[in-house]
Amino acid sequence: MLIETTRDVFKLAQVFTISRGSRTEAKVLTVRIADDGVQGWGECVPYARYGETMESVEAQINGLPEVFDRGALMELLPAGAARNAVDCALWDIEAKRAGKRVWQLAGLAKPGPEITAYTLSLDTPEKMRDQAAKHAFRPLLKIKLGTPDDMARLEAVRAGAPDVRIIVDANEGWSPEIYTDLAPHLQHLGVVLVEQPLPAGQDGALIDMQRPVPVCADESCHDRDSLAGLKGKYDVINIKLDKTGGLTEALKLRDAARDQGYGVMVGCMVGSSLAMAPATLVAQGALVVDLDGPLLLAEDRETPLTFDADGVHPPEAELWG
Fold it and tell me: What is the pTM of this model?
């Protein structure tokens, strides 16, 4: 197999801010694998929060042997961005060889559109209210929070979009005291889900806390091995392919989580339609879908995903799978 990596940059439609910082572009790594005249591709977003860089992810991919399959890949690379892009590229090759779609090869039902959240980045309450009003036509908004002064922001968003469902992502930015203070207000303001209120590794306090709004593990959940450490702390898990290391593990994590009684959210890093394409298969029937990466971009892949009133649609074969 011939493996090629390229670094691609997609401009964002506007500055995107979370509690860890701001960005104006999405930097992704595109992986193309050619095997016997068939080419497949995938995309990943190396994430500094997990100790990943473009260089480290490229090194992992370049260190792979000349011959391997998806099963061997699970042993060759750990869960993370590098394995994700390679795994998804291999799925793409398999589908092209078989003349079928990936969902058929995986034994899944034919996928359809799923309503996705649209993310409002962290800003002043006034600007977040304006953002919310601009996007009040959307059925589900996600708010990036994670500071000690989040109540005013949440109230402003609710004022700007009084009828939408809201989910909140604290990105590990709260302390137990802040979360305890905010939790009843979140419920009062109609928040339906809270992502990762406490830092991963410091979330044991959630066991003894009331959770009036379901709490979702994001940074605390990567793959099936994570599930044992979530018991009693979380109600929902957020599956991201850059954390699971690809579609193969994401589907297994989804099934295992549901078997253990967790609700499932399917999320994303900020990437192009190529990154979201395989995630749309995992997102079928999820409690919450957050695959709005392409909606945040000013530019996208040549064959992008379709977003409309029905939500995010599965990819056309020209894009992936």
Answer: 0.95
pLDDT for the residue 21: 73
* Residue with token string 């979370």: 18
Three-state secondary structure string covering the chain: CEEEEEEEEEEEEEEEEECCEEEEEEEEEEEEEEECCEEEEEEECCCHHHCCCHHHHHHHHHCCCCCCCHHHHHHHCCCCHHHHHHHHHHHHHHHHHHCCCHHHHCCCCCCCCECCCEEECCCCHHHHHHHHHHCCCCCEEEEECCCCCHHHHHHHHHHHCCCCEEEEECCCCCCHHHHHHHHHHHHHCCEEEEECCCCCCCCHHHHHCCCCCCEEECCCCCCHHHHHHHCCCCCEEEECHHHHCCHHHHHHHHHHHHHCCCEEEECCCCCCHHHHHHHHHHCCCCCEECCCHHHHECCCCCCCCCEECCEECCCCCCCCC
Q: Under 8 Å CB-to-CB from 48, ≥6 apart: which residues?
A: none
Residues in the chain with pLDDT values less than 70:
19-20
Catalytic choice (100, 110, 231, 240): 240
Predicted pLDDT at 19: 63
144 is annotated as an active-site residue: yes
Q: Catalytic: which of 142, 144, 233, 243?
A: 144
Question: What pLDDT digit, counting tens, does each position of 155-184 carry?
Answer: 999 999 999 999 999 999 999 999 999 999
